[in-house]
Structures are given as structure tokens and as C-alpha cells.
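Standup, Tuesday
Yesterday: got the pipeline producing C-alpha cells again.
Today: sanity-check two examples.
Blockers: none.

Example 1:
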Amino acid sequence: MIRRPRKSLAAGIVALVLLALCVVVAVAVVQLLLGQQPVVDFGVLGSTVAGFTGADVPVLVVSGLVALVGLVLVVVALRPGTPTVFPLTSAGGAEHLDSGITRRSLNRALADAATGVDGVTKASVKSTGRRAAVTAHAAFGDPKDLRDRVRSAVAQRLDAVGPARSPRVTVSVTGTKQKEA
């Protein structure tokens, strides 16, 4: 039960291009019906296109560009996105119970665990299906010791949440410059 985002950017671009083409054609048709000079003269367009053969350079270039755009859209559609919901392990032998945690909720839970460590003032987490990057901002303390304690706290929270596949945790600590007296 890994929910992934929709491919809305690629679909939106294709939809906007098609909408623009439809608007241009509709405006030209209305102008023809009203007896005005159309934005796109279909007669000139048709006679121009009819003069080309499949071996002409403009036809080959346009065909190559259309094929390239199509290939890019297919790759974008087939490439899996970053999961939006991570599956959780079933607790107590519940075999048919599907449960999950959203990435945002997991990030908040891990950031909350990191800020629970003494010396850490705030924390941010970016997670993917395989990795969780924790950035802890500290007011004081040894960076190596804080990194180990934050990693331990985040690991404990991950065990409590129980994702089916635990991400690899990387921790960085910033803002621990010692002031000289």
C-alpha cells in the first residue's frame, strides 16, 4: 500500500498545449463564420503542408521533436514518484489490515523526536522511501554527541511508528559553535 503522487505536471503541460491549440482553432472557425480574416488561414496551411513529403527535412525535424516529447512524457509517466503514504507493519497479527503514515506525518514525528533531545532547538526532516535526512539546529553541545543522540531518538521513534520498511537515517547538526569566554 504505497500511494504515489499523480503525474499532474506532465498531464497539466499536455492539457495546456491541447487547450491552446483548441482555442486557436475555435477562434479561427468563429472568424470564418463571421466573414473575417481568420487567425490561422486553413487554406494556406493545407497547401503548405501538402507540398511536403515524408523525406523532407522539416517533416523529419518536426517528427523527431514530437517523438522526443512523447518519449519524455512516457518516461515521466512510468517513473515512480516519491511515496506519499508509507505502509506500516501490521500489529498483533492483523493480516488484512492495511495502514500507512503520510510522509508529512512521518517527518513531523521524526522532527519531534529530534527536538526532544537536550540541546536541539529545532529540527527538520526530509524523507523519501529509502532515506530520512534529519537536520538538527542546536544551541549548545558537542556536535558528534548530539548527532548520536538525535540518531538514537529518531531510531526509537521509527521503531514506535513501525514503517514496513525503515528508511536509512542521516543526521546533520548545525549551529553548535562554542562561544569563547
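Example 2:
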Amino acid sequence: MDEAHATALAAAYAGAPRLLPEIVYVLRQAQSRRRFGTEQGREFWLRKAAVFDRIAIEEAATYAPEVAAPAADAAANAARQLVEYDVTHSGLSLRGSDVVTAEDCRRYVRRQYREWSRTQRF
């Protein structure tokens, strides 16, 4: 990973809460009992995707690509879940969009998280 790319990745989550409290949030939300017919909200999908992305970034910086690959795959899957949620609920259109590949989806998560986190008090 080149230095500029590593810096951009670090900036994506600058000011974010530590990773462990975010993991706890995601786990608690995932295990919470929801009334029949209700679904997780956007904040859950965004924070879940960001957790997986942050873990994948750390894995890629620490380990060989073949070792870090499962974390990158999990991050891409979580990112796609957020994209699918936004397509369904917020009118995000993938037609002519730059959200196509797994890396596109992960970049989308970083942009969305950066925007969302500006309005949060951590």
C-alpha cells in the first residue's frame, strides 16, 4: 500500500470512536430483539460496514494479502449491505454510479461514514 493511499484510509476514520466500542454497538444491535417486520436502520448498516472496513484496513497494513483477504471480503460484503440499504431506502441509484466494485462500495462507506460522523458527538 502506498503512503498516499494509507493516509487517505486513515483520514476516513479520523475522529471515529475506538474500534472496540463500535464492535460492541454492532453486536448489541444485531442481537437486539426487534419487533416482527422491523429492520435495522441505516446507522446500524453504516457503522457495521465501517467496523468491517476498519478491521480490513488494519489487516491489510499488518499481514500479507492472502492473510488479509478474508477481512477484505467481509468488509466488501458489509459495504454492499449498506449500498443495498441506501438503494432501497434513500434513492441511491446505481445506474451510472461509481459504486460498482467491492472497493467502490468500501469507498462509499468511508465517504458516508465521514459525513455521518461530522454530526455525531463521540
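Quick observation on example 2: The CA atoms of residues 97 and 104 lie 10 Å apart. Residues 65-89 form the longest helix (25 residues).
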